[in-house]
TrEMBL record:
The keyword DNA-binding does not apply. It is an enzyme of class 2 (transferase). It comes from the Bacteria. Residues 32-391 form the Aminotransferase class I/classII large domain. The gene is aspC. Its EC number is 2.6.1.1. GO terms for biological process: amino acid metabolic process. This is Aspartate aminotransferase. Belongs to the class-I pyridoxal-phosphate-dependent aminotransferase family.
């Protein structure tokens, strides 16, 4: 019998990908399943990127590249960062990998020694704590609820940092809430972080172009605290803004020593990222500004339509998202009730019944570290969301 490692025995599958698989299994059985789980745009990859991917195949741009990505792509990312945030990064301060998720994973691998802590606020993206644990680190979870508008405060960040703290990992706009940190909020967090120079800041910027206030990019900690640049890792990728989820391409920019270590780690694990995906991303960066604006307009319309639908469900309260494409829905009014002979005690119970009996797949808030809520993706058509919410209303009407 194969003896699995302790790491393997403790490993949990991604909750969102598990739910996606379960939804597909029910659909294969003939059920009309509405999936509001995975953070994946329903619009196609932009034409400029798709055409470049085809071109890469046709022209034989299909060989290994440097482990940290082609120089041409890293220079383009550098220009993008200069344009959006006003900061200069040399190609040596940028690495490209097989998805932004792997970028975060490799960054944590390179900063964490056994027992090191990484501060993560709730509600968080489901994979953050597991990735810290896989780096032999300890996720230091800080509960941030409705009172904090689901964002970490300077006081809570200060209280969480200790001699073992090695990193602070956060996402803005947030997955799962869609809320974002304002410039003033980031400035206040920066004042705390200045006191603790051992803390590496990992800023997950994957949704920073999908913002709803008319600005080009979400507020960033480095724009209010440029002095923290030498210990901040900026994470981004093609998946969300460019709808390149299946292309698996992401990047990081940051201090050269850490970026070089991440690139070396990638060379020993995944090798180089796909040459085809890199060529497509290069085109996306150069040609997709109008496409992104169109997507943001579409998401604003879907947000407004979805909020109106959710307001019709008794007991639901929904935070209005400022970016990304998620609704963070408060379902606490329905916990403790029963559906037929089943008591709904937790968000997982609620979401399980919603999927198994009403065929709507959602993400329980407990998977994001916050009980009593659920996450819905509105990267779906307005009609699909309307149908999904109608089924939620049907479930709520049958709870006693």
């Amino acid at each position: 019998m194969i003896q699995l490692s302790k790491r393997a025995q403790n490993l949990k599958p991604s909750p969102t990908l598990f739910l996606v698989a379960k939804a597909k299994e029910l659909a294969a059985q003939g059920h009309d399943v509405i999936s509001l789980t995975v953070g994946e745009p329903d619009w196609p990859t932009f034409k400029g990127a798709s055409d470049a991917g085809i071109e890469a195949i046709q022209k034989g741009i299909t060989k290994y590249t440097p482990a940290n990505g082609t120089v041409e792509l890293r220079k383009s990312i550098s220009e993008k960062l200069k344009s959006e945030l006003g900061f200069e990064y040399s190609p040596k301060e940028i690495t490209v990998a097989s998805g932004a998720k792997y970028i975060i994973f490799s960054a944590l691998q390179m900063i964490c020694s056994p027992g090191d802590e990484v501060v993560i606020a709730t509600p968080y993206w489901v994979s953050y704590p597991a990735m810290v644990e896989l780096a032999d680190g300890v996720p230091h979870i800080v509960e941030c609820g409705e009172m904090e508008n689901f964002k970490i405060t300077p006081e809570k960040l200060e209280a969480a940092i200790n001699a073992k703290t090695k990193g602070f990992l956060f996402c803005s706009p947030s997955n799962p809430t869609g809320l974002q940190y304002s410039a003033d909020e980031l400035k206040a967090l920066a004042e705390v972080l200045r006191k603790h120079p051992q803390v590496v800041i990992i800023s997950d910027d994957i949704y920073n172009r999908l913002v709803f206030d008319g600005t080009k990019v979400a507020p960033h900690i480095l724009t209010v605290a440029p002095d923290l640049k030498d210990r901040t890792v900026l994470v981004n990728g093609g998946s969300k803004a460019y709808s390149m989820t299946g292309w698996r391409i992401g990047w990081a920019s940051g201090p050269e020593r850490l970026i070089t270590a991440m690139a070396d780690y990638q060379s020993q694990s995944t090798g180089s990222p796909s040459s085809i995906s890199q060529h497509a991303l290069l085109a996306a960066i150069k040609t997709s500004e109008a496409d992104i604006k169109g997507v943001v307009d579409k998401l604003v319309a879907r947000k407004n339509s979805g909020l109106k639908e959710l307001e019709t469900v008794p007991g639901f309260k929904t935070a209005e998202p400022q970016g990304a494409f998620y609704f963070w829905v408060d379902i606490r009014a329905h916990l403790g009730k029963s559906y037929q002979d089943r008591v709904i005690r937790t968000s997982k119970d609620f979401c399980d019944v919603l999927l198994e009996k009403f065929f709507v797949a959602t993400v329980p808030g407990a998977e994001c570290g916050t009980e009593g809520f659920m996450r819905l993706s509105f990267a779906v058509s307005e009609e699909t969301m309307k149908r999904g919410v109608a089924r939620m209303k049907d479930l709520v009407s049958q709870l006693v």
